Amino acid sequence: GAVVSQHPSWVICKSGTSVKIECRSLDFQATTMFWYRQFPKQSLMLMATSNEGSKATYEQGVEKDKFLINHASLTLSTLTVTSAHPEDSSFYICSARYRPYEQYFGPGTRLTVT
Amino acid sequence: QKEVEQNSGPLSVPEGAIASLNCTYSDRGSQSFFWYRQYSGKSPELIMSIYSNGDKEDGRFTAQLNKASQYVSLLIRDSQPSDSATYLCAVNRVTGGGNKLTFGTGTQLKVEL
């Protein structure tokens, strides 16, 4: 149980374009999902908390107009990186809350902006 | 002071030995603690959760929690080369925005043949 999928696993896009990343809980319903970003040799940084049916809560310093989050169902949250630039290149990982406090992670999406 | 602190390592242990990974946290009100394993280039995998003071064992893994000392540890018995990874300590915090995990920077473990 507690399987989370992410799609795509990797994506290359040109500067100025937008990219959408999907996060799905496959065998449970997740009212809360999280989006993290991880740069090489650094720890996970929480970007935002996504709650089904309501607006996402962004961490300080994260541009909500650049990183659009939609949690339209109990099994799907999406992250759209708008007008991507090379500095947005990173490893984006979602997680879903399974039990009161446990989080299970998706496999991650490696984004490269050229 | 960082919210969750870990020694970055690398921690090198011989195959079959016990690996001991440590973590301290600053928020005394934290109630839930987790250990994740992250292989290079992969996402974190939950391996242990602990909520009460004392020890919790699961196979070769034992998590230890001491809330008075604000200290969490992970012991890996009979270490195998496949245990070589970065181990992330995570602490659940209740904030105005809800429950969130705060991660340490991770300890790199190398199990040598």
Question: What would you say this structure looks like, in words?
Answer:
The complex is a heterodimer of chains A (114) and B (113). With 114 residues, chain A is an all-beta fold. Chain A has no helices and 11 strands. In chain A, strands 2, 4, 5, 6, 9, 10 and 11 form a 7-stranded mixed sheet that branches. Chain A is globular and about 40 Å long. The termini of chain A are far apart. The mean pLDDT of chain A is 94. Chain B has 113 residues and is mainly beta. Chain B is built from no helices and 11 strands. Chain B has strands at 4-5, 11-14, 19-25, 32-38, 45-50, 54-58, 61-66, 71-76, 85-95, 98-103, 107-112. In chain B, strands 2, 4, 5, 9, 10 and 11 form a 6-stranded mixed sheet that branches. A 5-stranded antiparallel sheet of chain B has the order 1-3-8-7-6, with no helix packed on it. The N and C termini of chain B lie far apart (36 Å). The mean pLDDT of chain B is 94. Chains A and B meet through strand 5 and strand 10 of A and strand 4, strand 5, strand 9 and strand 10 of B.
In a nutshell, what does this entry contain?
Chain A has 114 residues and is mainly beta. Chain A is 0% helix and 53% strand.
Strands of chain B, count: 11
Instruction: Specify which chain pair forms the largest interface.
Output: A-B, 20 and 22 residues
In one word, what is the shape of chain B? globular
Mean pLDDT of chain A: 94
Q: Rounded to an integer, what's the Rg of chain B over CA atoms?
A: 14 Å
The fraction of residues in strands of chain B falls at over 45%
Order of helices and strands of chain A: EEEEEEEEEEE
For the sheet with most strands of chain B, the description reads: 6 strands, mixed
Approximate shape of chain A: globular
How many angstroms does the end-to-end distance of chain B come to?
A: 36 Å
What's the overall average pLDDT of chain B, rounded? 94
Please give the number of β-strands of chain A: 11
Structural class of chain A: mainly beta
